[in-house]
């Protein structure tokens, strides 16, 4: 966005010309002038603003700093304090952006969890969501302590492999689909063919996650049946009626497996 030279001297350009070159509206340039952020270096005989090469460089700096998250007030302070040649303000801004990124990623996970909870229950259970937020504030260390207490040496394996409602990966989506399926057939008998087909899908997926460690699967199920324990581990508690139905359906499934 350089200016042309005439007889070795850079020519001045008008506000409309700068607007086109810099892809910024004349209104924005007038506003920058009004707040003393970017003052034009000259004016035509008719009083129209004109800008030189130095003004254009300053505008480029303003546009870049805006793009990386600085406010106009902060940019003005940097220019006035002549701090633009220091990298400290860029390092500070980078740290700020990283912090914001973490916060946004957490918001994304929380929103994903809300959408998944809606998929499971067909509504947003705000009381339960609030309880989950409260338990999340207890911190990861407490969750790890409880996990080790209930699962012993298998705690790390459980934490690594068990799907999290706030995740958006294919594994989590498959588990949510299975829960949605089982809810859609709760009007049937637990020993019906359709119910048992879904239960087998759940069983097979559990085997993929934890192998044939039936003791661990039973421990998981006992914790899963407790809304309080589920909350303490940061797991979304399942509806009591759904848990009871699953318990009955699994009892049928296991009885049939033992007969074969």
From TrEMBL:
Coiled coil: none annotated. This is MerR family transcriptional regulator. InterPro entries: DNA-bd_dom_put_sf, MerR-type_HTH_dom, MerR_fam. It comes from the Bacteria. It holds the Pfam family MerR_1. GO terms for molecular function: DNA binding; DNA-binding transcription factor activity. Residues 12-81 form the HTH merR-type domain. The keyword DNA-binding applies. Keywords: DNA-binding. The keyword DNA-binding applies.
């Amino acid at each position: 966005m350089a200016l042309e030279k005439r007889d070795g001297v850079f020519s001045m350009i008008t506000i409309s010309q700068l607007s086109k070159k810099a892809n910024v509206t004349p209104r924005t340039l007038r506003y920058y002038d009004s707040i003393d952020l970017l003052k034009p270096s000259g004016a035509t005989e008719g009083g129209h603003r004109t800008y030189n090469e130095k003004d254009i460089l300053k505008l480029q700096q303003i546009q870049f700093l805006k793009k990386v998250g600085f406010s106009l007030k902060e940019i003005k302070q940097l220019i006035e304090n002549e701090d633009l040649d220091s990298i400290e303000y860029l390092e500070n801004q980078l740290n700020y952006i990283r912090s914001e990124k973490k916060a946004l990623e957490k918001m994304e996970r929380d929103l994903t969890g809300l959408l998944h909870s809606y998929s499971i229950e067909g509504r947003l259970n705000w009381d339960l969501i609030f309880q989950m937020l409260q338990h999340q504030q207890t911190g990861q260390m407490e969750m790890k302590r409880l996990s080790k207490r209930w699962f012993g040496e298998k705690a790390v394996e459980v934490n690594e492999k068990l799907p999290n409602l706030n995740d958006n990966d294919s594994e989590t989506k498959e588990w949510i689909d299975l829960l949605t399926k089982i809810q859609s057939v709760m009007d049937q008998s637990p020993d019906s063919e359709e119910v048992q087909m879904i239960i087998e899908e759940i069983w097979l997926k559990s085997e993929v996650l934890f192998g044939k460690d039936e003791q661990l699967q039973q421990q998981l199920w006992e914790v899963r049946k407790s809304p309080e324990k589920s909350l303490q581990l940061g797991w979304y508690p399942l509806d009591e009626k759904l848990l009871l139905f699953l318990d009955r359906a699994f009892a049928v499934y296991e009885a049939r497996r033992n007969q074969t």
